[in-house]
Amino acid sequence: MGRRLLFNFLILCCSLIIIFVTNTITTAEAAAYNQNKSTIKAFILAGQSNMVGHGGFFERDAKQWDQRVPSECSPSPAILRLDENNLWVRAEEPLHVNLYPLNENGALGVGPGMPFAHKLLQLNPDLGIIGLIPCARDESTIQSWVEGETNGRLVERATAAERFGAEISGLLWWQGGADAKSRSGAEAYHSYQSRFFEQVQGRFGDIPIAQLAFRLPNLYKVDEEALHVPFNEDKIHVTTDGQVVMGAVLEETLMCRCDRMA
């Protein structure tokens, strides 16, 4: 019995050492990125709940996520996330955790950001480090992205990423449902959206934008209905497997119009 207890104790100690070393390496890597020692190709994730990511949560109990993370969404040393304190950390699902009060209700799940980054690295193996800048907000209107708190938070976070040496390389945009609730909101949408994209490209350069709506210069459309992506039982939020599809398609849509990054 004594030997068995000693053996179990040694196993536990080894496990703790492995965990400590792993976390130390991750912390050291993140510190290097946060001290402007490495260039990061950064992509802004903006929009509403499907960009936030609700893949894998149950509508009957919105605070329950099934915790399933496909390989296309798994953590990678080459994929970072700008956290709620505007610091680079190792990216993992859910990407938008702790950013906004509506995102703190436990209903967060898988979104398109991680599969987008994995697909981008698969097709550009020498790209280096991908940085994801989560900015999406549940139930946000297009007007809030032009002149509200949501707009200010996006600029603040992307600017912070630039200070750490990141190159803002694109915007992924998935939004519109909140503005479809009224005729006036729908009629004003195009004008506000054009202004938003002009603001982003005016501030961060003529970056490509991939989204689900109107066609504008340097803007490329993805039609989720044509892709027949599966939805959760609420018929609003895309499932985990659907988010994997959308992430890959967003990558293809964004990058096939641009020079492949190297």
Automatic annotation (TrEMBL):
Signal sequence residues: 1-30
Domain Sialate O-acetylesterase: 41-253
PANTHER family, per the entry: 9-O-ACETYL-N-ACETYLNEURAMINIC ACID DEACETYLASE-RELATED (PTHR31988:SF19), ESTERASE, PUTATIVE (DUF303)-RELATED (PTHR31988)
Alphabetically ordered keywords of this record: Hydrolase, Signal
Key word RNA-binding present: no
Entry keyword Hydrolase: yes
Name of one Pfam family that matches: SASA
GO MF entry, a single one: hydrolase activity
UniProt-recorded name of the protein: Probable carbohydrate esterase At4g34215 isoform X3
Species whose genome carries this gene: Punica granatum (Pomegranate)
Domain of life (superkingdom): Eukaryota
Upper taxonomic lineage: Eukaryota, Viridiplantae, Streptophyta, Embryophyta, Tracheophyta
